[in-house]
């Protein structure tokens, strides 16, 4: 998935999953996309916005999610730091795991590589450890790349989607 630009510089391709379940969720994601672009990242494709119930606690507000395909000269560490900065700028604060948040950005895929390392008090696993079980990642990712293959599981996205439960398949809708 790596490529070079016209001058022969390394260009990285990555899929980012975006989510919000607090405030004006669509506006939060649009601001997130704008801020990502302002960090020297080119957005090649963006999925529609999808609505899902909050997981694991369905009593929390519903999520709006999207996936974007980006092209950047930033390395993984630089991209990760930019993402954390954007989340904070949009109002994300430290909270319990899976609690409501204004903005959540996950690196789903980075050049098709398998990465497990610690970055600044975060354990970074790419592809994301649970992405293959999450309708709110798989549906928008499928919209962008029907031939995408999970680097670690070596399974096409269609196979991953076919493993979702009926509840997961019916529990996602294009956001109105």
Layout of strands and helices, then pairs:
Layout: E1 3-4, E2 10-20, H1 25-38, E3 41-46, E4 50-52, E5 63-72, H2 76-89, E6 104-110, E7 115-119, E8 122-126, H3 135-144, H4 157-162, H5 166-170, E9 172-174
Antiparallel strand pairs: 1-2, 2-5, 2-6, 3-5, 4-5, 4-9, 7-8
State the fourth-level CATH superfamily. Answer: 7,8-Dihydro-6-hydroxymethylpterin-pyrophosphokinase HPPK
CATH class: Alpha Beta
Over all CA atoms, what is the radius of gyration? Answer: 16 Å
* SS summary, helix count: 5
Q: Which residues sit in consecutive blocks of at least 5 with pLDDT less than 50?
A: none
Instruction: Please report which band the strand proportion falls in: under 5%, 5-15%, 15-25%, 25-35%, 35-45% or over 45%.
Output: 25-35%
Net shape: globular
> What's the number of extended β-strand segments?
9
End-to-end gap: 33 Å
Q: Name the helix and strand elements from N-terminus to C-terminus, one letter apiece.
A: EEHEEEHEEEHHHE
Q: Strand count, sense and closure of the main sheet?
A: 7 strands, antiparallel
Quickly count the domains: 1
Q: What CATH architecture do you see?
A: 2-Layer Sandwich
The proportion of residues forming helix, as a percent range, comes to 25-40%
CATH topology: Alpha-Beta Plaits
- Category from helices, strands and their pairing: alpha+beta
Mean pLDDT across residues? 89
């Amino acid at each position: 998935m790596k490529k070079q630009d016209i001058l022969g510089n390394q260009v990285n391709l990555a899929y980012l999953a975006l989510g919000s379940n607090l405030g004006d969720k669509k506006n939060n994601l649009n601001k997130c996309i704008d801020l990502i672009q302002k960090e020297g990242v080119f957005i090649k494709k963006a999925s529609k916005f999808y609505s899902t119930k909050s997981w694991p606690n369905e009593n929390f507000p519903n999520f709006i999610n999207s996936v974007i395909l980006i092209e950047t000269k930033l390395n993984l560490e630089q991209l990760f730091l930019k993402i954390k900065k954007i989340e904070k700028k949009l109002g994300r604060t430290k909270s319990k795991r899976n609690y409501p948040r204004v903005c959540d950005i996950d690196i789903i895929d980075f050049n098709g590589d398998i990465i497990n390392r610690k970055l600044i008090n975060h354990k970074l696993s790419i592809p994301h450890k649970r992405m293959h079980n999450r309708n709110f990642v798989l549906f928008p990712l499928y919209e962008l790349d029907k031939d995408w293959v999970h680097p670690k599981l070596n399974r096409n996205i269609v196979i991953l989607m076919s493993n979702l439960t009926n509840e997961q398949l019916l529990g996602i809708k294009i956001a109105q």
